[in-house]
Every structure is written in structure tokens, then in C-alpha cells.
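TICKET: design request
STATUS: open
ATTACHED STRUCTURE:
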């Protein structure tokens, strides 16, 4: 939380430059908060601000600023990923509501301070950056993986058609890239593929295969290494499947999540429970 505490005022200030106060007063914002589970937290923080001293008389802009700061502080106490998810949701919903794009260049700098290196969910809304599915959010801490897994489960529950099922495949691929970046060490696990090529920065397959070949050596672990390879292939297959089915989506997501838990056990991040 320390990183956010040092930048909280700036992050909220930059967010309000991108998303005007007026949007936080709309029915659309209230509806999206309700749909994504933020209504209770927003209402509680609003009540706390209202009944603190004479704040009931302050102008709407100042009130929104105070409520937003409080909400962001509370989310950051859960994890930086939880904070990013909320900020991302607000920006996406505002841009969809107004059918517009916004300049995220300054906000990007501040998000970097809380561990968010790139922002794939927002690329299509950024007026300065072309959208690409190949950019990923680089999560740098293990305790944030649980938020990524939770979001994957939510996305699966919301998926209702073949395009959404395929998109879950892309989400699984991105998650596995993030997982690989957490554990792979080129110097320790090897820099080259079997063909002698340097392993790419987003080549989750080679990174995790090399990682497991180092961590789980010997014939007794052969099945675990094979399981990892199969899971990595599943995510890629689903992303390009036409048509993709709900069953294929659920099987792939389940395998991906289980692989996260498997790596967590190897890294001593998971003992008797999930992340």
C-alpha cells in the first residue's frame, strides 16, 4: 500500500482529469458500480465523507474527490490489482458512456508506481495509443495473482457466446504470461529454446517449460512437466477456436487456474489453501 499512499492524491487527481466529476453523479456510474460489486463500498465511503464534520455542505466536486480517495485507499489495502481494476472500470465505462477516448499518458506514469506496467484493457480507450491484444499487464507480486484468477472466474461466468469464450482463451494466455514472468529467470533456467533461439519476453510456453525443467527435474516429475505443456497449448487453442464452446472455455480456464496453484505450491506461495 505504501506506493499508493505516496501517490494517492496524484492518482485521484489524474483520474478526475480523465473522467469528469459529472460522470460520478450519473445513473450509468451507479448502475456499473452495482453490476461490478462497488455500490456498497462507494455508498459507505460517501456516507463517511458526508457525516464527517461539516462535509455535508461541501460542493459536489470536492465531495467526489474525497469519496474517490477513500474508495481507492480501501481498494489498495486489498491489493494494487484491486485498485487498478476499479480505475480501469471507471475509465472504460465513462468512455463507453460518452463514446469517446481519453488521454491516459499522465495516468500511466502514476499507475506504474503501483506495479501496473501496461494497461491492455484500456488501450482502445487511450487517444495516444493504438489498441493491441498483445500488450499485457505485468503484475510483479504473487499476492496479486489471486485477483487475476478471481477476474478470470468472473469473466467466465459472464461469457455467453463463442467470441466471449475465445476471449477467455486470450485472458488465459495473458495470465500465463504474467505467471511466467513471476517465476522465470533466464540466467538460472536457460535463455534458449531447443532450436537455439532466444526465448521471447511473452513466450509463456518456453519460460514455464524451462522453469519446470529446472524446478522439477527427473523422471518422477515427467507427468507434471507434460501437464504444464498441455495447459499452455489449451489456452492458445481456445483463443483461436472457431467456434469455441462453453465447455471448452471452462475446461481451459480450470486448467489455467490449476496451473497457477501448481506453480504457487512449487514456489511455496500456497500451502494448505489457494493463493
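STATUS: resolved
RESOLUTION: sequence designed for all positions
ATTACHED SEQUENCE:
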Amino acid at each position: 500500500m505504501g506506493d499508493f499512499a505516496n501517490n494517492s492524491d496524484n492518482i485521484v487527481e489524474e483520474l478526475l482529469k480523465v473522467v469528469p466529476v459529472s460522470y460520478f453523479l450519473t445513473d450509468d456510474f451507479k448502475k456499473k458500480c452495482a453490476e461490478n460489486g462497488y455500490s456498497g463500498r462507494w455508498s459507505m465511503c460517501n456516507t463517511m465523507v458526508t457525516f464527517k464534520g461539516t462535509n455535508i455542505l461541501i460542493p459536489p466536486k470536492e465531495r467526489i474527490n474525497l469519496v474517490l480517495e477513500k474508495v481507492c485507499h480501501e481498494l489498495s489495502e486489498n491489493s494494487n490489482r484491486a485498485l487498478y481494476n476499479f480505475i480501469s472500470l471507471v475509465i472504460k465505462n465513462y468512455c463507453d458512456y460518452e463514446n469517446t477516448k481519453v488521454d491516459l499518458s499522465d495516468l500511466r506514469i502514476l499507475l506504474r508506481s503501483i506495479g501496473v506496467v501496461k494497461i491492455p484493457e484500456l488501450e482502445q480507450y487511450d487517444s495516444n495509443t493504438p489498441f493491441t491484444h498483445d500488450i499485457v499487464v505485468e503484475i510483479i507480486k504473487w499476492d496479486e495473482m489471486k485477483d487475476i484468477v478471481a477476474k478470470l472466474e468472473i469473466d467466465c461466468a459472464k461469457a455467453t457466446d463463442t467470441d466471449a469464450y475465445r476471449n477467455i482463451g486470450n485472458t488465459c494466455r495473458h495470465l500465463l504470461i504474467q505467471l511466467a514472468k513471476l517465476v522465470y529467470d533466464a540466467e538460472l533456467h536457460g535463455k534458449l529454446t531447443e532450436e537455439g533461439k532466444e526465448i521471447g519476453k511473452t513466450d509463456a510456453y518456453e519460460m514455464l517449460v524451462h522453469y519446470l525443467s529446472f524446478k522439477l527435474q527427473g523422471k518422477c516429475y515427467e507427468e507434471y512437466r507434460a501437464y504444464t505443456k498441455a495447459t499452455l497449448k489449451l489456452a492458445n487453442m481456445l483463443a483461436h477456436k472457431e467456434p469455441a464452446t462453453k465447455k471448452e472455455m471452462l475446461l481451459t480456464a480450470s486448467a489455467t487456474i490449476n496451473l497457477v496453484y501448481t506453480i504457487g505450491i512449487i514456489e511455496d506461495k500456497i500451502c494448505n489453501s489457494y493463493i
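CLOSING REMARK: The longest helix spans residues 162-183. Residues 1-6, 130-140 have pLDDT under 50 and may be disordered.
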